[in-house]
Amino acid sequence: MEKAYVPDPELERKMIVRKYRDLLSYMYDKTTAEQKKLIRKAFTLAVNAHKDMRRRSGEPYIYHPIAVAKIVTQEINLGTTSLVCALLHDVVEDTDYTLDDMREIFGEKVARIIDGLTKIEDLVIDSNVSIQAENFRKIFLSMSEDVRVILIKLADRLHNMRTLGSMPPEKQWKIASETSYFYVPIAHRLGLYAIKSELEDFAMQYTDPVTYRFIANKLKHTEADRQTLISDFVKPIQDKLKAEGIVAEMSSRTKSVYSIYQKMKRKNINFEDIYDIFAVRFVFDSDPKDEIRTCWAIYAIVTSLYETNPERERNFLAHPKPNGYQSLHVTAMSKAGKWVEVQIRSRRMDEIAEKGFAAHYKYKEENRTPDEYDNRVEEWLMKIREVLNSDKTNAIDFLNEIKLNLDLKEVFIFTPKGDMKQLPAGSTVLDLAYDLHTNLGDHCIGA
User: Fold this and answer.
1) What is the dihedral of CA 201, 206, 211, 216, to 10 degrees?
2) Cβ neighbours of residue 446 under 8 Å, at least 6 residues apart?
3) Which of 136, 282, 309, 400 could make a disulfide contact with 248, Cβ separation 3.0–4.6 Å?
């Protein structure tokens, strides 16, 4: 049982200041004096607005917006405007401040993002339509104009999931189920791999606690063996990298509990039969023009030292995943007789692999030329705008349509002119007709 939180005003005041300084220290070299002043103004307003509010755990409510701002800046890598909106994201919803106040104090851009983050209240709608579905519709409406809305919303949900232990069981189940249904696919579609995996694990922890604990305990008991295997496996690679003058940082990651469970279920196998429970990653700094060559140079070192499995090789360099993921994967047999997946990528590729669209968004702010992934996300947002603008779509239909658009499994079709079109797996000829032009879909009788 969790220990009850006992308020200590002086300790809480010091903790709030410490959390703020930690937040500011990370952003210090990335912000101008004017931006620092804006962050301070947002922080002061949020502290005063939430001063009499507490979370379910008993802690001061202001801990939450500060934590969300920290996720936004340090885990998603967004800038000052997003940080300000994260600090203020619950002010209009939970206090006496209005959107007009936000507009007057912080400007139109901040007010518009906060509006997108504010839940719909006192909404008179058809009894068959879920208010939550309307809330999701509102988030997407705002997101189609400014994608920062959903990125901040994901940070908000991630912190809520990290602190879900203080909620009653029925609330835990409801929030966890909602997270699986809505927020996990969004994180996946935007390429936020680390956040997606953490949300999946937290959701499973509350919706299927027995299975979660079973797999988590298995991982814990086999951790020492994994670390020994990794050390023995990577040393020859690191020695050869050094000899050839290639500087690459090595790290290892263990599959998430949820991911392991999905594989066990999909292949109908036991925990012990999963050979890719962990992967070894080599990340290097490089000019964009040298990235591919360096990836293959590291690949050559791995294949010269170990027997590899050609069927498990994945080249996402030439053909990135729909969410922009690029990497070179090779599976090698260790001296201990275990298969080890090796991932090879540049620093830029690694940032995009972990932060997905947020990393692309950062490069976009730096006036980088849009790439194929930017165009794919823009096409996706365009489809969402079309659904939103349809008079025939109510909130529930909208949610079903969005779920279809969140599915990353895609089919590729070539038109008679040779243009390639991408549609969700399961699409029909009629879907293609509508994708080409509404008028064509309305009059299509065969193909």
Assistant:
1) 50
2) none
3) 282
Q: 334-369 burial, b for 16+ CB within 10 Å, e for fewer?
A: beeebebbbbbbbebbbbbbbbbbbbbbbbeeeeee
176 in a structural domain: no
Marked catalytic residue, from 59, 94, 208, 431: 94
In a shared domain, residues 402 and 297: no
Residue numbers of the domain that contains 34: 9-166
Q: Report if residue 191 sits inside a domain.
A: no
- Residues 149, 65 share a domain: yes
332 shares its domain with 273: yes
pLDDT digits (tens, 9 = 90+) for 91-149: 999 999 999 999 999 999 999 999 988 875 543 444 445 666 677 766 666 666 677 88
Q: Would you state the structure tokens that stand for residue 230, as one six-digit string? A: 């990794």
Catalytic annotation on 391? no
Of 8, 12, 90, 93, catalytic = 93
Question: CA–CA separation, 203 vs 195, rounded Å?
Answer: 12
**22 and 96 housed in the same domain:** yes
Query: What does the pLDDT look like over 394-413, one tens digit per residue?
Result: 555 656 666 555 555 566 67
Share the mean pLDDT of the chain: 84
CATH of the domain at 341: 3.30.460.10
Q: Looking at the domain assignment, is residue 190 inside a domain? A: no
Averaged over 317-339, what is the pLDDT?
Answer: 87
**The two structure tokens encoding residue 243:** 């000899």
- Residue 205 located in a structural domain: no
Co-location of 250 and 285 in the same domain:
yes
Q: Is 284 helix (H, G, I), strand (E, B) or coil?
A: strand
Question: What does the alpha-carbon distance between residue 356 and residue 326 come to, in Å, rounded to a whole number?
Answer: 10
Pair 150, 143: CB distance under 8 Å: yes
In the residue annotation, 93 being an active-site residue is answered as yes
Q: What backbone torsions phi and psi does residue 279 show, to the nearest 5 degrees?
A: -135, 150
Burial class of 220 by CB neighbour count within 10 A (0 to 12, 13 to 18, 19+): exposed
DSSP β-ladder status, 339-346 and 278-284: parallel
